[in-house]
Structure formats: C-alpha cells, structure tokens
Amino acid sequence: MAEPLRHAHDPDPGPLDVLPRVAARTAPPPADLAGLIEAGVPVVLKGLFEHWPALAAGRAGALPAYLKGMDRGVPVPVMEAPARSRGKFGYGPDLREFNFTRRSARLSDALDRILRLAGEENAPYVAVQMLPLGGQMPDFVAQNPMPLLPADVAPRLWVGGPVHTRTHNDRDHNLACVLAGRRRFLLFPPDQVANLYVGPLDNPPPLSLVDPEAPDLARFPRFADALASARVAFLDPGDALFIPRLWWHHVSSLSPFNAMVNYWWGDDATGVEQPHDVFLAALLAYRQLPPHERAYWQAMFGAHVFGEDGAAHIPPGQRGPLGEMRAGERAALRQRLRAAFLK
Among 47, 162, 165, 244, fewest CB within 10 Å belongs to which? Predict the structure, then answer.
C-alpha cells in the first residue's frame, strides 16, 4: 500500500497514524450503493461531491462566509469544552455528564467565535455538531445535492476547531463529507465492543472510556487487541468516508478550522424488530437468570439466531419461526410478541 500523502503542518507520525489505511476508491453510481452496504467495510470515496459550491468555498477559505450567507438566525446547538480538555469531547468524571457544555447561538456568532479562538493560547474548544440542514439551512441542501443517497436523506453540519470525538458507533450507515480542514477517523469493527470499554448505555451516545491517542493499557489492557484490528482514514476537503452501521469510530479534527457534513440512513426497523430495543429486552430477560439457564439461552441464540443451520434437520415447510418466514408468518409473530410485551 502506498504511503499516505503528508502535509507540511502534520506532526510526526504517531501510533495511530501508521495503522492500516482504509481503502479508497472512486465514488460509485447510486445503483451500486447496495453493494457498498453489502460489503460492510468502511471505504474512502473520491470525487463524490466535487460539484458542490460548499466544497469550492471550503478550499478557498471562504466557507464561513458561505455558511453565514444562509444563516436565517435560528439558534443552533453549540458545544464548548474548556482548554484543559485539549479538545477531547467525552465523559466527565462520573460518566453521567460530559466534559463539555451545550448552549444555543446563532450560527454566524458561533462561526465568528470558532475563528476568533483559532490559534489563541489556552482557548476553549467550540463546535457546532449534528446541525440538521434540511430545516435550518434548506438553501445549502438545494445547492449541494448528494446524488449517491435517496433525496429524503438530509445532511447535518459539523464545524469547529481542533476537537476530538471519543470512540462511539451509530445505528445508521454514515457518509461523512469533509468541506474544510483535515480529519482522521480511527475505525474499529463492530465485534470489538468488549475491547473498547464502552460506557453506560443509558447516557447516549455510549462512548469508549479509552483515549486512543494516549491509551492507559494498564487500566484497559484489552484495548491493545482493539488496536490490532483497527484501521485509519485521513480525509482532506473533497473526501468522503462511508462507515457501515455499528462500526466504532474516533474522529479527530486536525486543523484550526474544520467543517464536514454527514448523512445517516438505514435504521428503519421499529417495534419488536428494532435490534437495539430487542437487545435491551434481552438484558431484562436473561441477565438475572441462573447460570445454567443463561447457558441454555446462549446456546439457543447461537444455534437459531446467529447460526446458519440450527434447524437443518427439520423439513423446510415445518420449521416455523426457525426457518425462512413468509410475510404472513412474520406478521403473525410480530402480533404475538406485541401482545406478550403489553402484559
């Protein structure tokens, strides 16, 4: 694999910078989106949004003015962490709070503050994150269409200083498009959850307790195994990164001013077919069972939920919910489960 392009302002490579790179390719046509999702691995996409005026503004150093021109004065969410955080947005000491504050401000005012603090010694770290552009800045959506995704998948804006977002994952697929600055994405496969030391589920989003840029391996020894399976992507303006749902990612903004839009889509299941809610129901149902009963259910899940041939000995037409259910059978099972959960 070729060595990554280095920039004059880049620091000397650290341990994360020399990890295996995420593969890069030219952007696929919309018809090939299903294949991208089916592959189930992150990939850097080149040339996906070269036609965007927002990208041209970002490359020219004029993105703040471009965004201000669309600001309708509606308050936007602003996050701020003190200088001592070193821009690492994550948990506070008790895991029930975060180390940053949230407030609302006009986008133009937030942009001015971000730019004013750039390079200032002992300055706080400020960012606007997850701003839904469909409602807040519809002109941006109209001027910068995303051809790869359905029209109802709307972008969100992320803009700020050199902040670092602690390792987390999403229930949706994620397409991240860099407009200004440089970003590093550190990615871990979904099955590394036990090695990432993730925080409480009831304080979303659950974040890894490990700082991957300075890991305490005495406290978190299994993180070394997570790093062994990790890969890294560096994104410059014009680069996009596709992250399949559930892949863990730690995001570092490496420039004094950074901007990105992202798209989330794909988490469409509801009710008794929503995997996260069913997982929570499983915690309620199985965690307090005696060990021998938990072992039974672990074996049942292994054979019939995550296995491929647990019911191969039963004729196909007689497997019921253990086989390939027809639409009517799925509907009947959903109704049965709804009735059970309402008791």
Answer: 47
